[in-house]
Amino acid sequence: MKKRYKIAFISLGCDKNRVNTEQMMSLVQDAGHELVMNPAGADVCVINTCGFIDAAKEEGIANILAMANLKEEGQLTKILVAGCLSQRYREEIKESLPEVDGILGTGSYTDIVAAVEEVMADQMPEYYGDINQTEEENLRVLTTEPYMAYLKIAEGCSNNCAFCAIPKIRGKYRSRPMEGILEEAKYLEEQGVKELIVIAQDISRYGLDLYHRRALPELLRELCKLDFHWIRLHYIYPDHFTDELLDTIAEEPKILHYFDIPLQHCDGTLLRSMHRWGNREKIEDLLNRIRTKLPDAVLRTSLITGLPGETEEMFEELCQFLREQKLVRAGVFQYSPEEGTPAATMENQVDEEVAAHRLDLLVDVQSDVIDEYNESRLGETVEVIVEGFDEEMGCWRGRTYADSPDVDGHVYFTAAGEVPSGSFVHVTLTDTVDGDMMGEIEEEDA
Could you tell me if 250 and 294 are in contact, meaning their C-beta atoms sit under 8 angstroms apart? Predict the structure, then answer.
């Protein structure tokens, strides 16, 4: 009889990585092994890592070392490392982290069962499948709250931005067949998911490689036929944002008017050197198209300061752009040179201290934009998905359509009775607190 092992998982990095972790968990469970929450007492801990920027690498190494301590104390038997860090730094992990007992690259998530059984037989499994292979269809063990889930519609990236290593880690862009996506979506519907978050490195490119057309609008219309309350879209690249996509979002009431469009900068010269689309005029035209069609649109982006060649004038233009366009949801980052990327060897690298100072200034600009937006919402009655009771705040917590989980703010509200997690209620916004909103639940929802 095959041995049954206790397997713990730690998932780091983005939610695309989370989906791979959930797939590995399902494969392990289907093979007869037991999933456990706590690595202490487990036979194997699988750490699915991120290797995108320095902070992510440091987090991955810290988790490996923490599991190594458990192993030394006799509370854990084996450590398997998977994901982007192991794909990118295979030899470095083997040389500098001897505590690691097995490695899987980003093309080998489906080899997890074999790796577990080999490592427990005191072998050193190393699986590095083709990172450009077609994504296999697998079930998942959901690790999100029961009312929400991520739906990954493609793997990899073919944009080849000069500062980014993702294509080398995750491979070229591969759209999943629509039939498989819809089958998985129906499974999520059956599990009671109410907020579906459609993700990929670039969802707007969906279908170009597989169907030779931009098929995201068609996919979204099919998803809207299912019993989801909210459908949220993440990472719509600006160069593939079509009128058909905008019309689809406008016509389908389930699709939230929340646009996550990674711009990175607004200076055309800098964007061209980074192999990115557009300039300030083109970007502002796109944002105006969205706002004209959907006046309640909430725009989210990511911005990088300190890119090679960024002058003080370019940085000031970026700050002015953010003040004028009032992008109320923005992740702002300091450029991090990544090994093996063209940007890392470009001339005119910005001094690290200068880049850090610019980041602080950009954060201040963004904070003012958020505060102004939140103040403008006072008195509104908004739909909120309930996340639960917040012990620290002493009231209920939830999110509006303008708040994506883990990256945006919350609405804290009072209610006379119990408010189930995953339910939708209406809250009148009454105050702002450190970027979040306070409010009172409407009587009919209390």
Answer: yes
CA 92 from centroid of its chain's CA atoms: 26
**In this structure, which amino acid lies at residue 423?**
S
> What confidence tens digit (pLDDT) does each residue in 89-102 have?
888 888 889 999 99
* Cβ–Cβ < 8 Å for 233, 255: yes
Cβ(79)–Cβ(100) below 8 Å: yes
What is the 8-class DSSP label of residue 350?
Answer: P
DSSP-derived 3-state class of residue 344: helix
Element (H, E) at 216: helix 216-223
Identity (one letter) of the amino acid at 137? E
Closest CA to 149 of 114, 191, 118, 109: 191
Per the listing, tokens 């029961």 go with: 146
Give the whole-angstrom CA distance, residue 22 versus residue 27: 9
- The 3-state DSSP composition of the chain as helix, strand, coil percent (nearest 5) reads 35, 20, 40
Strands 154-155 and 395-399: unpaired
CB neighbours of residue 130 within 10 Å: 10
Coil vs helix vs strand at 326:
coil
Q: CA-CA distance, 442 to 94, in Å (whole number)? A: 57
What pTM did the predictor assign? 0.94
Report, in angstroms and rounded to the nearest whole number, the Rg of the chain calculated over CA atoms.
23
Q: Rounded distance, CA 166 to CA 156, Å?
A: 7
Note the pLDDT tens digit of each residue in 50-69: 877 777 788 889 999 999 99
* Close Cβ partners of 253 (under 8 Å, ≥ 6 residues apart): none
Distance CA 276, CA 281 (A): 14
280-293 and 312-325 are packed helices; what angle lies between their axes, rounded to 10 degrees? 10
